[in-house]
Structure to design on (452 residues):
C-alpha cells in the first residue's frame, strides 16, 4: 500500500522489505550463528532474568532481524550472562558470546555502538 | 536352485523385503539380532493416523514367512568381499555367499536420559513415547491414577545439535498428537498440553488428526520448547517453557510428562558400515547413492538399503521402500556378472 503521508497514526505493519540493516550484517559477520535461531524459546524459558523482567533473547534476535532493535535492545541490560540459555539452545548457539557481540555492534546505549 | 539374498534386520522393512524377494523367486536369508522378528513395530500399540492396531499389520507379515530362512538372536560376525560376491558369517556359525545384501537395520530410539534437563530416569513421572505405548499395549492402567495435567514434549533428541541429532525424526509430531488423544480418552478430565517448535503434519490425514485433537479432544498446543523440568516434594513436575506466540516464559505443574524421543542411527550402523566399507552421512545414517531415485542403492556393488537405516521414515514409507529395494535387487541380480 502506498503511504501518502497523510495518516493520523503511523502504520503498524512491519515493512521487512525496507529493512536495510548494515548493523545486522556486521553482527552476522561477527556471529554467524545468529541466523541459526529457530525461535523455540528455550533461552527465554530458562532465563533467570526473564522471570522478573522483559528479557527474552528470542525476541531480541527476531527484532534485530526485522530491523526493530530499538524496541527490544533495552531488554539485554537485564542479562546477567549466567549462560543458562547456552546450555539449553538446541542449535548450539553460543548465546553469551552473541549477547556480548550484540552489545558491541549495537551498543546498549548510543555512545557504545560501533 | 534359487539364489540367496541376505537381509540384515528383521523389522518391517526386512520382513517385507524378504517376502517380496521370495515372491520374485529368490531365497531370502533374514538375520535378526533380537529374539523375535518385528522390530520396533512389535512394541507399538496403535498406528497413526487412523489408530489401527500395530499387530494387525505385523501379524499377517509374520504368518507369511514360508520360503524365507530367518534367524533370530543372530548377529553378523563378518562380511568379506570375494570376487563378485559377499561372504557373510553369522554368529550362529552359518555362513552364506551372496551377490546381493540388503541392510534393513532400522533406527534406535533416542535415549531420552541424554537430555538430562528433562529428568528421564531421574523423575518417576517423566516417561517416553515408547513407555506410554507399552502401557497402552499392555492394557494396564498407567502407574499414576491421579493424572490431571500432563504434557508432551516434542523434538526430544530431534533437531538438537547438542544431542548430536540434527535431523527431524518425522514421526513424533503426529505420534504425540495420536497419543495425546489416546491419553485423553483414558483420563477425560485431564488437561493435555503439547509443547512443540513446529508441527509437521505432512501426511495424508495427519492434519485431520491435529484438527480432531484440538476440536474434539481439547488438546492445548503451546509453541515453545521445554527448557527444563524439576520435581517437587510430592513427586509432581514443574515444567518450564516459553509460550513463544505470547512472548512470555511459562511454568506449569504437571502430573505426567511424556518425552517424544526421536530416531537415532542404529548402534549397528557403524560396525556394518566398516565391514562393508560403505559410508554414512553426517547424521550417522547410511548414505544411499542419492535421495531421489536411488534411495535403496549404496555406492558399493550389491549392497542395498531399505527403511529407516537411511534416515527417519514412517511405517508406510518403510514398507514401500522395502518393495522398491526388492525390485532393485532383482534388477541387479538379473544383470549378468561382468
Amino acid at each position: 500500500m502506498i503511504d501518502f503521508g497523510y495518516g493520523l497514526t503511523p502504520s503498524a505493519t512491519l515493512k521487512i522489505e525496507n529493512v536495510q540493516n548494515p548493523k545486522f550484517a556486521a553482527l552476522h559477520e561477527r556471529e554467524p550463528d545468529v541466523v541459526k535461531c529457530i525461535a523455540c524459546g528455550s533461552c527465554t524459558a530458562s532465563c533467570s532474568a526473564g522471570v522478573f523482567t522483559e528479557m527474552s533473547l528470542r525476541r531480541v534476535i527476531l527484532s534485530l532481524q526485522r530491523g526493530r532493535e530499538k524496541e527490544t535492545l533495552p531488554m539485554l541490560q537485564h542479562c546477567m550472562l549466567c549462560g543458562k540459555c547456552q546450555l539449553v539452545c538446541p542449535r548450539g548457539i553460543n548465546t553469551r558470546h552473541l549477547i556480548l557481540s550484540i552489545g558491541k555492534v549495537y551498543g546498549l546505549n548510543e555512545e557504545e555502538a560501533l | 536352485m534359487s539364489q540367496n539374498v541376505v537381509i540384515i534386520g528383521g523389522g518391517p522393512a526386512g520382513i517385507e523385503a524378504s517376502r517380496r524377494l521370495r515372491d520374485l523367486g529368490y531365497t531370502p536369508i533374514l538375520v535378526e539380532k533380537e529374539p523375535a522378528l518385528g522390530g520396533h513395530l512389535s512394541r507399538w500399540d496403535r498406528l497413526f493416523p487412523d489408530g489401527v492396531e500395530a499387530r494387525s499389520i505385523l501379524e499377517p507379515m509374520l504368518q507369511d514367512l514360508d520360503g524365507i530362512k530367518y534367524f533370530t538372536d543372530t548377529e553378523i560376525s563378518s562380511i568379506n568381499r570375494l570376487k563378485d560376491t559377499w561372504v557373510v558369517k553369522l554368529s550362529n556359525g552359518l555362513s552364506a555367499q551372496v551377490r546381493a545384501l540388503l541392510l534393513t537395520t532400522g533406527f534406535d530410539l533416542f535415549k531420552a536420559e541424554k537430555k538430562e534437563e528433562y529428568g528421564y530416569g531421574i523423575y518417576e513421572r517423566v516417561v517416553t513415547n515408547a513407555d506410554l505405548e507399552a502401557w497402552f499395549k499392555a492394557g494396564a492402567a498407567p502407574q499414576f491414577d491421579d493424572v490431571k495435567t500432563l504434557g508432551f514434549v516434542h523434538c526430544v533428541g530431534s533437531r538438537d545439535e547438542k544431542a548430536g541429532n540434527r535431523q527431524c525424526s518425522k514421526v513424533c509430531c503426529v505420534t504425540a498428537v495420536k497419543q495425546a488423544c489416546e491419553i485423553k480418552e483414558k483420563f477425560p478430565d485431564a488437561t493435555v498440553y503439547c509443547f512443540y517448535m513446529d508441527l509437521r503434519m505432512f501426511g495424508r490425514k495427519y492434519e485431520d488428526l491435529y484438527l480432531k485433537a484440538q476440536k474434539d479432544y481439547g488438546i492445548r498446543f503451546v509453541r515453545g520448547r521445554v527448557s527444563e523440568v524439576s520435581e517437587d516434594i510430592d513427586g509432581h513436575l514443574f515444567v518450564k517453557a516459553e509460550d513463544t506466540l505470547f512472548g512470555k516464559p511459562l511454568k506449569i505443574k504437571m502430573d505426567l510428562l511424556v518425552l517424544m524421543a526421536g530416531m537415532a542411527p542404529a548402534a549397528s550402523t557403524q560396525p556394518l558400515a566398516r565391514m562393508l566399507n560403505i559410508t554414512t552421512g553426517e547424521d550417522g545414517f547410511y548414505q544411499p547413492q542419492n535421495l531421489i531415485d536411488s534411495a535403496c542403492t549404496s555406492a558399493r556393488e550389491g549392497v542395498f538399503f531399505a527403511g529407516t537405516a537411511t534416515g527417519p521414515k514412517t511405517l508406510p514409507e518403510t514398507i514401500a521402500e522395502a518393495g522398491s529395494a526388492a525390485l532393485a535387487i532383482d534388477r541387479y541380480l538379473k544383470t549378468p556378472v561382468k
Q: What stands out?
A: Chain B touches chain A through 23 residues (CB under 8 Å).
